[in-house]
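FIELD: query
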Amino acid sequence: MISRLLVANRGEIARRVFRTCRERGITTVAVHSDADTRALHATEADIAVRLPGVTAADTYLRADLVIEAALAAGADAVHPGYGFLSENAAFAQAVIDAGLTWIGPSPDAIDAMGSKIASKKLMAAAGVPVLPELDPATVTEADLPVLIKASAGGGGRGMRVVHDLAALPEQVEAARAEAAAAFGDPTVFCEPYLATGRHIEVQVMADAHGTIWAVGERECSIQRRHQKVVEEAPSPMVDPAMRERLHAAATAAAAAIGYRGAGTVEFLAAPDGSFHFLEMNTRLQVEHPVTELVTGLDLVALQLDIAEGHPLPPTPPAIHGHAIEVRLYAEDPAHTWRPQTGPLHTFTLPTTTEFGVPAPVAAGAVVVRVDSGFAGGDVVTPHYDPMLAKVIVWAPTRSQAARALAGALAQARIHGLVTNRDLLVNVLRHPAFLAGRIDTAFFEQHGLDMLARPLAGEDAQRLSAYAAALAASAAERASATVVTGLPGGWRNVASAPQTRAYQAPAGRIDVGYRRTRDGVRVEDEPEVVVGEVTATRVELGRGNVRHVFTVATYPEMVCVDSVLGPVSLRPVERFPVAQVQVASGSLLAPLPGAVIRVAVAEGDQVTAGQPLLWLEAMKMQHEITAPTGGTVTHLPVAVGHQVEVGAVLAVVTPADPEAQP
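FIELD: result
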């Protein structure tokens, strides 16, 4: 029987496993890097063990250090979570060799599915439908478009879509470099690319006594960079006949490798209902909560039961209702999904349960579950994945779940970083999503620029700026030490209005306001009625319609929340400090990271859009391209350099000065 368990992971992953352990009376052990010393998973565990260093390669990916930590803490079992070492057969074997219980499938099963090339051959032999594998060296025009994939690992790393045969060699090399950095294995292969396929996966559970469950399916078609963003169960595409075929294929896949534990068999489905095997993830999935909410199962508890040798019941429970999960990322979808780093000042979401699997609820009730590794006051670093939380809603119907989830996200207070929250709400409210018309090209088909637009339109941003200005005035007055009986900005004789300026998503907003005998008046919009004003709450109305704005002020940022949509504003200084100037044509680092590849040298001639170098941050590679054609006149970085946001990476001097953007 397991009594003390170490989770070889971090963040929400570790916290999710800890929750079940606490219910089982199992002592929890966390490992943490130096960057995660005060992270929630490290502070909540019964025992925490430091892994010296900050990067994943130096800490969470060091199997030897993780096993040493387990033994030092007196753990008798290791749960790998998902990501990092969770699908590393050598790590699983090392855990077993150390005399610890491994919460997962056998090393042989992990190894069998660890190579996408080998696993596809194995699945084909078991009668599971697969897409043909293509050797990159033999791809022809007739094969296009193709998808380059890393043989080891997943999560979108090492993936490239190629439509032009001439671009294939360069893209293969880029995929190999990314795969080697992410998984230590540069092997890649190609397969036909289905631009409008649907990503359907089946949750399987298998015990040591021959019972294999297919626990329903999940749809994960809405993706960015081949990484899932929205997941749901059941799939709106799958009818009973297709479900039966999916379950049979997934069960055959698990049986073919003698699987034990929790796993996911992933398929790519065509519009006609046919499907092909993609891969099997030999671990728990990020999106497992949607399956938990529609079945009432605790999948982590089942993993522990199976590891202790207990049998599964003969059949899994039935599916009830609908669950949708979204991944809330610190990233900017409108600017190439750029990851964001920095302080997360405030982070609150409407929540029914954290990490929990509630008991059956009353008819019509809605469950809002949040799985997160962050809280307000935390800092998002460049060292790990930028996912802030998973927000999951269960409701009796799909439309109810989508509406409730969109509402919960819209009500969230997220201050300090740009996130994909507005994008998620727009997707959940989109007519095509509500109709179930989704596939892996959803963002391309419906326009990322429209889907990523702010929830707060220009008028809402302007009203929010008024609220910010009035709240700032109230705060200053509240802290005044002289003539405290007079309202802020009071004049005996009418004079110029008080002014403040803010930079909003839609542009600069100048606010003029003055205090009169009848109250505060907004100069540009006298029809706006100003009600109660405090440093944190402002009432504004037009006619008989009144809105309440909640205002939070931070260094160089004001965050305003209202039913009109959240707005982040940057105060414009009246007397700005002189800024350090950079040379014209400078390419600045968009985020902190490591330079992993440089494709040019000083003096090279480049064309607009040509890749110059690559940064690696938050598990992804970010391509830096030339903004215009010209000459590389300065290249201050080299492979291995760590750079901060705003660092000069290169200077491209255009041949025609007028071509400078």
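FIELD: remark
The mean pLDDT is 92.
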